[in-house]
Design goal:
Elements lengths: L17 E8 L2 H11 L9 H15 L8 E9 L9 E14 L2 E12 L2 E12 L2
C-alpha cells in the first residue's frame, strides 16, 4: 500500500480540482499494439478505441498513488469529430467534477478532455466508486 499521506482518498478530492494534463504519444509502438489486437488499417486516423485507451492511461497516471479497490463504475464520452492521427501527441486533462457519498459508497466524477494539435477531440466523465 502506498504512503497514506500521499494516497488519493475521497476526502482529498474537491469539485473543480484539476490534476493537470498528461501527454500520451500515439507512436509506432502503440500502433503496433493496436494492430496486434485489431488488425491493420489503411487509415492514418486514430480509432476511437485508441483515444479511449489513451484517456484511461492519462486518468490513471494523473491521480497517483491510488488506493486498491476502486471501481470504474461508468463513463460517458463525446467525440467531436476533430481529427487525431497516429504519431500525434494527445494532451489529456483530468479534473474532479464532483463527489458524493451515497448508500455507504464514495462516488467521484472525473472530467476528461483530450486534444490533438490544439483541437478538442473528445470530452467525457468517468464515475468511480472510490475505495478509501
Amino acid at each position: 500500500m502506498p504512503d497514506e499521506a500521499a494516497l488519493w482518498t475521497f476526502d482529498r478530492f474537491e469539485s473543480g480540482q484539476t490534476f493537470g494534463t498528461v501527454n500520451i504519444a500515439m507512436d509506432e509502438a502503440k500502433k503496433a499494439e493496436w494492430v496486434t489486437l485489431f488488425g491493420p488499417s489503411d487509415s492514418s486516423r486514430l480509432p476511437g478505441g485508441m483515444i479511449v485507451a489513451a484517456m484511461m492511461e492519462a486518468y490513471i497516471r494523473a491521480i497517483q498513488p491510488r488506493p486498491n479497490g476502486n471501481v470504474h463504475a461508468s463513463q460517458a464520452l463525446s467525440f467531436t469529430g476533430a481529427p487525431a492521427l497516429w504519431n500525434d501527441i494527445l494532451a489529456i486533462s483530468v479534473s474532479c467534477r464532483d463527489k458524493e457519498e451515497r448508500k455507504g459508497r464514495k462516488w467521484v466524477s472525473f472530467g476528461v478532455e483530450a486534444s490533438a494539435n490544439g483541437q478538442v477531440i473528445m470530452t467525457g466523465t468517468i464515475r468511480s466508486i472510490w475505495a478509501a
